């Protein structure tokens, strides 16, 4: 097992999930119930399932598509999102006081 890759994946996901909406939903649910353990197990199970499905989808894409094509698709997707963000924010009217 590649421990460096395991640690890097854990730190990246942990930091990105700190302010996630699912965490806020879990906090709200656990604060309003008598069974916080059930909320913990439900949210942990849901996170594990979505992570597992993401890994399976990524593995399937890696088996079907060449690496350079996946990188090109990702680069084009990020470029499209960046352009949309730039032009959408420029097109928004400024708020008047």
From TrEMBL:
Q: Which residues cross the membrane?
A: 35-57, 69-87
The membrane topology of this protein is: Multi-pass membrane protein
PANTHER family per record: TRANSMEMBRANE PROTEIN 165, TRANSMEMBRANE PROTEIN HTP-1 RELATED
Q: What is its main location?
A: membrane
Q: Which UniProt keywords apply?
A: Membrane, Transmembrane, Transmembrane helix
Q: What Pfam families does the annotation carry?
A: GDT1 (PF01169)
The text of the family note is: Belongs to the GDT1 family.
Its subcellular locations are: Membrane
Q: What is this protein called?
A: GDT1 family protein
């Amino acid at each position: 097992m590649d421990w460096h890759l395991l640690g890097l994946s854990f730190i990246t996901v942990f930091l990105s999930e700190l302010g996630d909406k699912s965490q806020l939903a879990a906090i709200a649910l656990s604060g309003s119930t008598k069974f916080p353990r059930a909320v913990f197990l439900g949210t942990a199970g849901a996170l594990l399932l979505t992570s597992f499905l993401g890994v399976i989808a990524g593995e399937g894409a890696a088996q079907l598509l060449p690496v350079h094509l996946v990188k090109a698709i990702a680069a084009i997707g990020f470029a499209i999102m960046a352009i949309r963000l730039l032009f959408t924010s420029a097109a928004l009217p400024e708020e008047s006081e």
